[in-house]
Amino acid sequence: MSRKSPTSRKETSIRELIGELGSLSRRFSPEDAQAKVRLLEQIRSRPIRSARLLFRYHEILCFLRAYPDSPALLRSSEEELQNFEARVALATADNEYTPEGLRNTGIAGTVVEYPFDFDMALWLAEKFPDDVVIDWEAYDDAETDNLAVVLPLLASWIENDNLDNPEQGTEDWVTVAAGSKQNDFRWFLSSLTASPFRREIQSYLYEQIELPLQWLLGDSDVSRSRARYSAKRTYYQRGPIMRPKGGFRREIVRSLPPLKPLPKREANNVIDLTRGALLVRQRELYPVDHANPAEVFLADAGRGIQVAIIGTVPEFRLPLEADYAAFLIKNGLSIGYGVGAVLFDRVEIAINVFDTFRGGEAAYILAQFFRIFHHNFGVTNFLIRRYQIGYENEEGLAAGAYWFYYKLGLRSFDEEIAELAEEEFAKIKADKRYRTPRKILKKLALSDMYLRLNPDAGVYEELSLSKLSLAATKRIGEHYKGDRAAAIRAATRRLSKILDVPDWKTCSPDEWESFRRLSVLFDVIPDLETWPVRDRKALAQIMRAKGKPGETDFARRLLKHKRLKQALQAIVEH
To answer: Are 475 and 488 in contact (CB under 8 A)?
Structure first.
């Protein structure tokens, strides 16, 4: 039975046309490809007044743009997305309530409302100085007037009499103080950064306020409708969306060309795209907030997928882990993000494919993420924390995330939960209609999961970073009476002598700082003096590498130092 051509249905409603386009979006036969283009031609000349329908149409367009099956569909979906702000404006003119339904969607022509943290507020003020303002309506709804507590620190001495005036509202005072030539947000942020307080104090003060902001996206290239990374070529989806061929582990170990840092200009472009993709979705990620332009890699994973790996600037690096953000790109569109924290032979991974693109190549994309960390850092063990699979995460439970990871080969750390999973999976294989009860899914989500590239290696034993940190705290308390400055000085002197690092003139300030920071932990190792010279020299190189422009060298050197890993594990078990 042939499908009725959409062009013959002249009276079809816009809702029906969009519904038909949505049903075809994940089908990729030649007939479907032609039908999609015809439907877009019909829809593009019709107004859409419903916010819900407008949002649905936008999400379908994004999926079509990321997974086009023909040049014609790529061109049509791209044109519609680039002009989407006009659709929003038209809907606004017809119905003044439409923008409310699109608030915080990140679509062109809409508004994003969020209390962004200090570093991202600075970025927004630099990139969009006229488009971000304080959301006074949301601020007035807050329980406390935290901004009023900070303002006296920024005002001149004579202005305090007015600040103490109970009839003078905070919004009114800030509006007057900012003057007519700049908006309230830019004035406050510039006043705070010009204050004599150290950056750490500025950040602390700002984030205690939890200042709500409004970001007017307009027709900005950072909106979800228009943000693009220039791909060298387009991958056209000529058939069904695939899973990794030959199994998940085999895909991870498949060869990958060495990653090289991007030139600074391109690296900054990737960082800006990543920040924009997150912020318009009201999300933030620590290594993206503190992104390092000197350490941005871009891997071509095939099938139109690119994965950007972004390191962290030395000042904000984690104590032992090397923390990296990932930005997932499909045919130039941002489709998700992730993070990988590398420590010795393992990486703790979290990944999130945006809702719009789920049901696509999730397993293949995850395999590419694992593959990059395996080849670039040498890791052979992969950890997924329980939140990702549904612990205190309703979305993960509803999606059955546990079984997604289980079918790829990941297993629970907890033995009882691992046994429960085997029993449940046997039921699933025996009866295709069987669905795991919610209470069991919640129990399965109580444990983290892991994957070892060597499936015969047994259960992975994780090195507890919290216990290592506690060991350092105990040493400071017991040996230095809680005086942390004295502990750092003494540990640095001791480690410098034991590791034979007497001359720091060749070190950069960041390398010296990383040595000082790590000295407090490595000072806990009881037999450090007896280590072979080669191992002590390697440890000194690791401590300096933590402060190098890129953190990759640190992660690779750490991986090779077997004696250090054994010593730290002994501290944890003590």
So the answer is: no
Tokens standing for residue 76: 């049509």
Task: Dump the DSSP string for 452-506.
Answer: ESSTTS-S-----HHHHHHHHHHHHHHHHTT-HHHHHHHHHHHHHHHTT----TT
Q: Give the span between the Cα atoms of 352 and 388, in whole angstroms.
A: 9
Distance CA 516, CA 401 (A): 42
- What is the spatial distance between Cα 19 and Cα 52, in angstroms, rounded to a whole number? 12
Measured distance CA(292)–CA(264) in Å, rounded = 10
Whether the CB-CB separation of 361 and 239 falls below 8 Å is answered with no
Q: DSSP string covering 511-528, please?
A: HHHHHHHHHHHHTT-TTG
Backbone angles phi, psi at 335, to 5 degrees: -120, -5
User: What burial letters (b/e) apply to 197-220, b meaning 16+ CB within 10 Å?
Assistant: eeeeebbebbeebebbbbbebbbb
Are the CB atoms for 320 and 472 separated by under 8 Å?
Answer: no
Q: What is the pLDDT of residue 574?
A: 83
* Separation between Cα atoms, residue 167 and residue 346, nearest integer Å: 59
> DSSP code of 323?
E
Q: 19-56: per-residue pLDDT in tens?
A: 999 999 999 999 999 999 999 999 998 999 889 999 99
Instruction: Name the pLDDT band for 1 (thresholds 50, 70, 90).
Output: very low
Query: Quick check: 85 and 219 in contact, CB under 8 A?
Result: yes
pLDDT digits (tens, 9 = 90+) for 276-300: 999 999 999 999 999 999 999 999 9
**To the nearest 10°, the Cα dihedral for 395, 291, 59, 91?**
120
Nearest to 50 by CA among 112, 20, 19, 95: 95
Query: 398-450 pLDDT, tens per residue?
Result: 888 999 999 999 999 999 999 999 999 999 999 989 999 999 999 999 999 99
Separation between Cα atoms, residue 243 and residue 303, nearest integer Å: 12
pLDDT at 229 over 60: yes
Mean of pLDDT over the chain:
92
Domain ranges of the chain: 6-99, 111-216, 248-385+448-452, 465-573
Nearest to 279 by CA among 91, 140, 126, 475: 126
Nearest residue to 326 (alpha-carbon basis) of 376, 397, 392, 360: 376
Q: What is the pLDDT of residue 99?
A: 65
- For residue 326, list its beta bridge partners: 309, 338
In three-state secondary structure terms, 216 is strand
| Helices H / strands E in the chain, number of each | 27, 11
Binned at pLDDT 50, 70 and 90, residue 169 comes out as confident
